[in-house]
Amino acid sequence: MNRTVRSLRIVAGVGLAGALIYVAFGRHNGQAVFFAPYESGIVWKEPKLVTPGERGGAPSDAVVLFDGKNMDAWTNGDKWLIEDGAAVAMKTAVSTKQSFGDCQLHLEFATPKKVSGKGQGRGNNGIGFMNARYEIQVLDSWDNPTYFDGMCASIYKQRPPMVNASRKPGEWQTYDIFFETPRFKEGKVARPGYVTVVHNGVLVQNHVKLLGDTPYDRAPGYKPHPEKQPLVLMYHGNPVRFRNMWIREIHEPEGEKPAKK
User: Fold this and answer.
1) Mean pLDDT, to the nearest integer, of 206-226?
2) Which of 43, 46, 109, 228 could form a disulfide with 101 if both were Cys (CB 3.0 to 4.6 A apart)?
């Protein structure tokens, strides 16, 4: 039997609830046929309009953490050197004055061009979410052997990156990190944290479940904490440079099924 539907067309109309609906129709064996689309029954709120940034720049709903001019968004930001549009790590770690929970973070970093030290002593820094409880490692991992769960783009002491996408010392690199903070209820984990990391355009951590915090000297574990806390950039004695840093809060789409009459 020939089931080919010819002259398929899709038209739009307004349903009883004011929502835009689509109906497809065509002809099968000379007769008109209609196809009703699947409907979930959920009435969705219209997604917020966001203007994307140009060439890695901040979208319209992002909080700019560093634009090449000053570190005013950071506690202890005045301790870092601003040079040629970059913030150079010096003296101490810095933390954002604003707290964040579920978020999308973009930043660019460069480990020192002059190679000094080896392993964890070479171009070491880190991105610490939730007041540095959960760290994504920053390290010069170009021809620099170290333990795999401590190399660049690792979830520190928990999981190596899927691949090593590092650029050469001194070259600018990008991180796009998507972080979902854990949730706690009555002192226990109701939902673990998750993290996705894109390093220089390469996916290296794919919605990985966090096992807990990321200390150096013990196994990871969860302790209850607020859903929003500051972001931290570490300082481990290396003049790692940062630029074009912005962050945006993640909000899931909202919708609900109308009550049955």
Assistant:
1) 96
2) 228
pLDDT for res 89: 97
Give the global pTM.
0.86
The pLDDT of residue 55 is 85
Please give the Cα distance from 140 to 28 (Å, whole number). 63
pLDDT tens, residue by residue, 99-123: 999 999 999 999 999 998 999 999 9
Q: Residue ranges of the domains in the chain?
A: 6-46, 63-249
CATH code for the structural domain at 63-249: 2.60.120.560
What integer is the mean pLDDT of 132-150?
97
The pLDDT of residue 33: 64
CA distances in angstroms from 120 to 66, 85, 137, 199, listed in the order given: 26, 26, 10, 19
* Residues in Cβ contact with 108 at an 8 Å cutoff, skipping those fewer than 6 apart: 56, 172, 173, 174, 175, 242, 243, 244, 245
